[in-house]
Amino acid sequence: MCKGLAALPHSCLERAKEIKSKLGTLLQKPDSAVDLVIPYNEKPEKPAKPAKAQKPSPGEALQWRDSLDKLLQNNYGLASFQSFLKSEFSEENLEFWIACEDFKKTRSPDKIAEKAKKIYEEFIRTEAPKEVNIDHFTKDITVKNLVEPSLSSFDVAQKRIHALMEKDSLPRFVRSELYQELLK
Fold this sequence. Notes:
Elements: H1 10-27, H2 58-63, H3 68-73, H4 75-87, H5 92-103, H6 109-124, H7 136-145, H8 155-175, H9 177-182
Keywords: Cytoplasm, Membrane, Signal transduction inhibitor
Subcellular location: Cytoplasm; Membrane
Function: Inhibits signal transduction by increasing the GTPase activity of G protein alpha subunits thereby driving them into their inactive GDP-bound form. Binds to G(i)-alpha and G(o)-alpha, but not to G(s)-alpha.
């Protein structure tokens, strides 16, 4: 992004982000309904969390080019990716993905309902402060899943956002100066 964005008033940036989100939603459609089906017995993968976020070796950072999951499983990689997305004013997808991962660890039924509502209000509902760019089909499935919230309520939306980050955000990150510095 150009350096001049920081000089724009906050309201202009928010409005531009809203327009970007709405246009993306209109342009995006599911590749097929089949890729949205999540088998009932499939357990979600939990990212491994190293004890300390150490700077990766160039070889390890090189693997992130081909695997968003490897990037997300590495605390340093996750922090670098998040920093990059914030610099582009496009961190909402990653924040949603992280919120979903945290949500899946919830055990109390009351907390499940409370967290589900919070995630919906922050990321899913129309005009949400950090509305993620999902198609109407995915949004409808997610809203239906929230009638009786469960740990899998956001699985379809999270899968779509993961695919979007893999196709769009990851390639931009890999081309960024931040990532290129990690390879040195």
